Amino acid sequence: SNVSPQFAAAFHLQPGKTVYASIANGYKAGGFNPASPPGTEVYGEEHTWNVEGGLKTTWANGRLAANAAVFHIDWEDMQLNLPNLFVPGEFYIANVGGATSSGVELDLNARVHPNVDVFGDFGYTRARFKEDSISAGLLVGGNTVPNTPEYTSTLGVQVSRNLPQGALLYGRADVNFIGAFEYDDLNTAQQDAYSLANFRAGLRGRFVLVEAWVRNAFDTKYIPIAFAYGPLAPSGFIGEMGRPRTFGVTAGVGF
């Protein structure tokens, strides 16, 4: 059982401009491992404090929206899924100590023309283990928390045109940028920064939708998730490739 308080407040500076702040306590229950190295059969609770503050604004009669936020997360007894060094291919959950994650997020949406919208966002995160954190008997203090890109960003544009009978013809392009991130708490392997481009175009009527799309248009090769796998893998890790170039057509009818 646990009590997780949360407090939040917002102040409307003027129409279309709001500043806010929040603080919340997070909790994850402890448990038991069905298989693990001796002495790690049980793992404890995980607790966090999450602090966020930001500003939300609209300008030019709603044609421009700009938002900014800062955040800080403080973990105690973080739970991680770790490889069993004595049994290749076996994993267990353990508490590895504390960690912090701080960053900023920005996003912008603008209607630069009645038929053209541009949008973008950017997020920066610095996530590190606290100095006394230990994982599987090894010190990981100062290491980057796994699976946490240093930055993420999106840039895109959508063009649309109204047609007779209430139909809408549109096209959209966006590029997602993902910064480098570590696969494990020891920081022994990482995915380098990469980007994914997506395109789609369609026709939306009063009752019918037809859309053609392509995701990862330039067939970027990347591995979004990987686990330490010991001597069973030549690299010491086993992972899953990200989706290759994928394209298709979507059609629908609504009433």
Write the layout of secondary structure elements.
Blueprint: E1 6-14, E2 17-28, E3 31-32, E4 42-43, E5 46-59, E6 64-76, E7 79-83, E8 91-95, E9 99-113, E10 116-129, E11 134-135, E12 138-139, E13 151-162, E14 168-178, E15 181-182, E16 190-191, E17 194-204, E18 208-215, E19 225-228, E20 237-240, E21 246-253
Antiparallel strand pairs: 1-2, 2-5, 3-4, 5-6, 6-9, 7-8, 9-10, 10-13, 11-12, 13-14, 14-17, 15-16, 17-18, 18-21, 19-20
**Count of distinct strands:** 21
For the termini, the CA-CA separation is 47 Å
Which of globular, elongated, flat, extended, rod-shaped describes the shape?
A: globular
Low-confidence stretches: none
Alpha-carbon Rg, integer: 23 Å
Q: Note the total helix count.
A: 0
Largest sheet: 11 strands, antiparallel
Task: Provide mean pLDDT, rounded.
Answer: 94
Order of strands, main sheet, comes to: 1-2-5-6-9-10-13-14-17-18-21
The level of helicity is: under 10%
- Beta fraction: over 45%
Q: State the order of secondary-structure elements, H for helix, E for strand.
A: EEEEEEEEEEEEEEEEEEEEE
Question: Given the helix and strand composition, which structural class is it?
Answer: mainly beta
Jot down its keywords:
single chain; 255 residues; mainly beta; eleven-stranded antiparallel sheet; two-stranded antiparallel ribbon; 0% helix; 62% strand
